[in-house]
Amino acid sequence: MDTRTEKNILSLHPGAQPKFRAFMEAAQTYAAAKGYEYKAICGTRSWEEQAALYAQGRTRPGKIVTKAAPGSSFHNFGLAIDCGVFKDGVYLDDANPDVADRIHREVSAIAKRNGLRWGGDFKTITDMPHFELDTTLTLAQLRDFHEEGKPFNV
Known about the structure:
Number of helices: 6
Strand content: 5-15%
Number of strands: 5
Distance between the termini: 24 Å
Helix content: 40-55%
Largest sheet: 5 strands, antiparallel
CATH class: Alpha Beta
Shape: globular
Number of domains: 1
């Protein structure tokens, strides 16, 4: 596994890491067989990082990249990753989004087999590169744990 992916997996909640690692190993093997690299490019995000992303396209320049305010993303709790598709060092999510979306769609079945939800299935926003733990914990419950400074199990 590449170092960027491993670093992002290690940023996740310890209880979630085995499912994400299994998914990424299988997704990387799948993508490599098609001539692509598949990497986890983002793992856990601080609330401050989420606030900066949320401000983009609203109060800061750029296009809107998220609908999730701080505390409203599974990234904030170490339960989500975003992935990228690469070919010869080129990030295809920007350079060739049709190809990247196809690969994300194809690996989504691998994610589901490993206990993850895929952002391409979301009802209010399509987030093709996003994968999160399929847990019964709600964002409200996760925020409560955070505010109380209590750990949680997944």
